[in-house]
Design brief:
The complex is a heterodimer.
Chain A: E1 3-7, E2 10-17, H1 27-38, H2 43-63, E3 67-73, E4 77-85, H3 92-95, H4 105-109, H5 117-124, E5 127-133, E6 137-145
Antiparallel strand pairs in A: 1-2, 2-3, 3-4, 4-6, 5-6
Chain B: H1 3-9, E1 26-29, H2 33-39, E2 44-48, H3 54-61, E3 66-69, H4 77-86, E4 90-92, H5 97-106
Parallel strand pairs in B: 1-2, 2-3, 3-4
Helix pairs in contact in B: 3-4
The chains are: A alpha+beta, B alpha/beta.
């Protein structure tokens, strides 16, 4: 269960993401979406947050050994922090290219690994930062502003 | 258009009569989950050949009106369970994805994309 803390104007929620759990994959993004709906945020903003959270969640499920997604909701923005332990990304520039994927054939047959995940996150984000250490893991920070719209 | 008309055109029956009145805005057809996440509009009928539970997670995230699994593929047990949990109308048909989309297009339904 996610841990929800309401600290004044800041709401913070953390979701644990298990590697290779394709049955539960997408649940964190769905829980986040419902929370944002309950807060009455703009549907376009919710959709962008849902895209970013879903793609980040799937990346953790597919590529890592497990990780966490922490989301802070402030009056100005939705901040999505993702961190996994895993093999890391050797060439981030390549990983950000549309269509580039290291997913296995089996994963691709399920309709994942189209090389669209990180580009989708980037397009949904007002700010985007990714850091990765080979052999250790990857961290991602996405900011979605309430005001920006699309 | 009501979901009832869509189901009739595909000769599909609903277990839950309450969904028949649901409004359908358009359609989207794709087997790539990221593509659906990025582009499909809310209120869409999503036509796919994918059968695993993540289909329902994506359908819920995009506020799909319903999912039609085409080509005689059968949704996995977990997929059916999850669809009930999340309230996503899920159907399967022997019609190919091409024929499903063709029938719905003939009905007047059009492909729609998410704004932005």
């Amino acid at each position: 269960m996610p841990d929800v803390k309401d600290v004044g104007a800041l709401m913070s929620v953390t979701y644990d993401i298990a590697a290779r759990d394709f049955v539960r994959a997408g649940e964190a993004a769905n829980k986040l979406k419902r929370l944002l709906q309950q807060l009455g945020l703009d549907p376009a903003v919710i959709r962008r947050a849902a895209i970013a959270a879903y793609e980040a969640e799937m990346n953790i499920v597919i590529h890592s050994y497990g990780g966490q997604i922490k989301v802070d909701i402030t009056p100005e923005s939705i901040e999505i922090f993702c961190e996994d332990s895993g093999p890391g990304i050797p060439d981030i520039e390549k990983a950000l290219q549309e269509g580039y994927s290291t997913a296995s054939e089996e994963i691709r047959e399920m309709g994942f690994g189209a090389g669209m995940g990180l580009p989708n996150i980037q397009r949904s984000a007002d700010e985007f930062r990714i850091e990765s250490t080979v052999g250790r893991g990857t961290s991602l920070q996405v900011t979605i502003l309430h005001e920006a719209g699309e | 258009m009501k979901l009832a008309e869509v189901l009739e055109a595909l000769s599909l029956a609903a277990d839950d009569p309450e969904i028949l009145d649901m409004e359908v805005e358009g359609g989207y057809c794709s087997d790539l989950l990221s593509d659906v996440m990025a582009k499909a509009a809310g209120g869409s009928i999503w036509v796919t050949n994918q059968v695993h539970p993540n289909v329902v997670a994506v359908a819920s995230l995009i506020d799909a009106a319903a999912v039609i699994v085409a080509g005689g593929m059968k949704p996995e047990e977990e997929t059916v369970k999850k669809a009930k949990e999340l309230g996503i109308p899920l159907f399967s048909t022997d019609l190919s994805a091409f024929d499903v989309v063709g029938r719905l297009y003939q009905l007047g339904l059009r492909g729609i994309l998410r704004n932005g």
